[in-house]
Design brief:
10 strands; alpha/beta; 42% helix; single chain
Length: 283
Amino acid sequence: MGDAARVWRHRTGEITLDRTRVMGILNVTPDSFSDAGRYFDPDAALRHGLEMVEQGADLLDVGGESTRPGSDPVTANEEWRRIGPVIHDLANKVDIPLSVDTMKPDVAAKAIDAGASIVNDVSGMREAAMVQVVAGSRAGAVVMHMLGNPKTMQTHPQYDDVLGEVSSFLVERIRALEAAGAATEAIAVDPGVGFGKTREHNLALLRNLDRIVALGHPVVVGVSRKSFIQQLDGGESGERLSGSIAAASLAVAKGARIVRVHDVRETVRAMRVADAVLRGEKL
């Protein structure tokens, strides 16, 4: 993307990528790896979403199905029961774009009707029906790479060439979306750190993220509180903030323009510093 400002288009507008954008994670699940169901109650989820907006989130990503390693899927009805009221209420209360984190086309369609502008599919929009939902609604898209599915993805993941295979998958799904009528400017990509990758795979992707950036689409990176950070920094289970910010900052230095995070306030402040160093912006 270089230093020139670009935009990421979505259903209700566009996000200018003249600085790093922070996507706040809102898990409306009873079994999230990061918050242990703290925001499973819709009222608690709404309060947390509003809090993240106050802390400076540029967009919110709302999910109702845990995709932690080893997790079991939930039905579309249950997923929508969890997130439907939250998306509807947030859409009426905040001015920033809402993203729905789902692998299910039916859930994505309902979320868009309720006010979501972006679909974040960790399975990479492999289903033709999801491609049609996104293209037909003119929603923004986050195409992520995942090896297998959440239940099995961390069971001895193997690649001959992790960078090449992740890049090829993303290109294939980009082409599928464009062939269905999605605008090129609406498509962002995510290498899927932690989704069917060992620590070494994750580090290789981050170290060479410029190769993903070279695909020509905004790059979203989600390293927040991932287990590989604890493996590296030696902290306790709940002490992953420092490593998360370090990894996000390094990803931004390699060209990522959107960071998906749990700790919005701290990350927003860190990204102001990173942007000032990298792009000469004022603090």
